[in-house]
Amino acid sequence: MKRLNEWFEEYSVSHQNQTNQYIHYICVPAIFLSIAGLFMCIPVYFLEDLLKGDHPVFENWALVVFIFVLIFYFSLSVKMGLMMAVFGFLCLVINYLISLIAPLWIVSLTIFVLAWIGQFYGHKIEGKKPSFLKDLQFLLIGPAWVLYKLFK
């Protein structure tokens, strides 16, 4: 298994252009947020019995999926796992707040589409294909790379 710094080095190859990096700083977290929002929209049915609680932030498919995603991040780095845990929790809270004022699935789908348009525009500027076309795991590396770049 690759180490975190090896993933970042490989990811950075197609993210050298400053404009592309700025686009990624906005669009990658937006995509992560929107995917969490879309998972939160899936009916929970049996999760209500599995996850005992009274709050939609904790009773949803986004949390279940995120727990598995965190295993990946923690296997790369405890520090990155903790950073992604905080970011993921913020995404759950933000999506819950959005759901109080608008249909979450519409907002999430809109953010998802617009952010991917931004991503592909950034890669057009860069002149290189997105990393995930080489390896789908880069879809998980992108958010970690953005956090690393913003907080290093």
Quick structural overview:
The chain has 152 residues and is mostly helical. The protein is built from seven helices and no strands.
Description of the molecule:
With 152 residues, the chain is mainly α. It is 74% helix and 0% strand. The mean pLDDT is 90.
The secondary-structure class comes to: mainly alpha
Number of helices: 7
User: What spatial form do the alpha-carbon principal axes imply?
Assistant: globular
Distance between termini?
23 Å
Mean pLDDT: 90
What integer value in Å does the Rg equal?
Answer: 16 Å
Q: Which stretches are low in confidence, meaning pLDDT under 50 for 5 or more residues running?
A: none
Number of strands: 0
| Major β-sheet profile | none
- Indicate the proportion of strand residues: under 5%
- How are helices and strands ordered from N to C? HHHHHHH
